[in-house]
């Protein structure tokens, strides 16, 4: 029987079963266990991520998801109004122990060391003592310096009024957003690595749940490599051969101990991607985010091309380069902002 006919019959059966399979979580799970394989890679990736997280608790790391998460939790406690006299008692020993462990390993990134140290120093300055807090304080004082030298001011929380002011008006920012369009036709010029690094400096300022920043930007600036990688994705037919450089944005599921956070890597990576693409515009570069649907043969091809461990999953690709001034750009009419704002439970399109 031809493959096309088999697919058509399977799709027809799927549509017929939808009223039943969407009725309950149990039936939905049974459907994806016995009748569909579409979530198997995600299931394995989540479990591989949990394993990578557990293994990281005993490995020398440059950046620790546990330390980053707990340090940010301390920051949130420090800025609460009113601030509790005692907080974080249930995880403060774990936090200080992780910092001490990573200092011994000698691999902890100096910026992360300074941030955690400054926040912990402020925490111990203001918090009232309990038994676990006293034990953690003693370990903190034994484990190394209570201040870490580094560029810039202390990394403890500070009033909003101390934040830098950009001077960018709403109209200027809106113009930048309108300037950024998905460009598929590029000049065949090399993209300097320092411009990509500058754009990444803007990307890392994006918000991230508990500041874990669970993503990596895998960059290909050799045109042959960039075109080979871009061609793996759907939707690049007809212009993949014109891409001079490409980023594969990867979500790191190894930053989470539990399944409940499995979507956060995709959210945080996407927030960073938008700031990355806006920053490229200010540097004279253009970009095209390339959708990455969860299609097993493509997932397998990308995993092989990048030699990816199971807990790293592609979120999207971003083609980038100097835009060809004569290259066409779709108009892509956007929905009116008023149509996307809801003040009631009317969710109809």
Please describe what this structure looks like.
This protein is of the alpha+beta class and 349 residues long. The protein folds into three domains: 52 residues, no CATH class; 78 residues, no CATH class; 152 residues, NADH Oxidase, CATH 3.40.109.10. It has a four-stranded antiparallel β-sheet with strand order 1-2-4-3, sandwiched between helices. α4 packs across α5 and α9 crosses α11. The longest helix is centred in the first third of the chain and has 19 residues. The protein is globular and about 70 Å long.
**What's the number of extended β-strand segments?**
4
In the CATH hierarchy, what is the class of the largest domain? Alpha Beta
Assign the structural class, choosing from mainly alpha, mainly beta, alpha/beta, alpha+beta, or little secondary structure.
Answer: alpha+beta
Overall number of domains: 3
**CATH H-tier superfamily of the largest domain:** NADH Oxidase
Sheet-strand content, in percent, reads 5-15%
Query: Unreliable runs, pLDDT <50, ≥5 residues?
Result: none
- The first-to-last residue Cα distance is 40 Å
* Percent of residues in helices: 40-55%
Q: What is the architecture of the largest domain at the second tier of CATH?
A: 3-Layer(aba) Sandwich
* Continuous helix count: 13
Short description:
This protein has 349 residues and is α+β, with helices and mostly antiparallel strands.
Describe the structure using short key phrases.
349 residues, alpha+beta, NADH Oxidase, 3 domains, 4-stranded antiparallel sheet, 4 strands, 48% helix, globular
